[in-house]
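Next comes the chain:
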Amino acid sequence: MPPGNSHTGAVHRWRLKLSQKQEYETHPLCALFPRITESEFSALRSFSCIRRDRLGIADFRAADDESGYWHFSIFDVPSKQQVKSLRPIAGVGVALLLDQYGGRSEWVLTTSAENKRQAMRERDIVYFLQAGPFIKIGKTIGCATNRVAQLQTGCPFPIKIISTINGDRSVESGLHRRFSKCRAHGEWFHATPELMDYINKTKDLDVLK
């Protein structure tokens, strides 16, 4: 083969490889896969993401009959709302979808099984504990069970969790002000009909369900 033809073939292959690399690097999902090779990316069948603030979870599964398309499920922790795809979307659609939920740069890959557990462990909650005729309105991270164990020592009444809602310190303070007329001491309140009615309404939003 003449040297010119060999050189031309090598240049063509180099340009083709460069073109493929550039196409891959500009793919809308590439930011989610900083350490994955092109062949690994092509073979990917499913992946999961969690938002950096731990309040969003997303699972994606490759469509069986449409190459490059994905089924999705996104779970919003504060609202407990889950959105699922009615039909698969293209890769660019995945990126645009994540943009709607905080921006694609705010999502990181993680394992599907760990997503919800991690988010639930790290969220702020406001809890309602009952001990006899008293209600405690407090705030913690993750789960109120540990607070029950801590408070039970020295308490003459059995303590039980009657409801929990998503909320930070400002939500807790707002509830303390709202029911200030029912306050017994500190974060403990009398179980008045008004307070119990409010708690019963929150049970539909209980984050422990």
In short: The CA atoms of residues 20 and 26 lie 10 Å apart. The chain is about 35% helix and 30% strand. Residues 1-28 have pLDDT under 50 and may be disordered. Residues 28-119 form one domain.
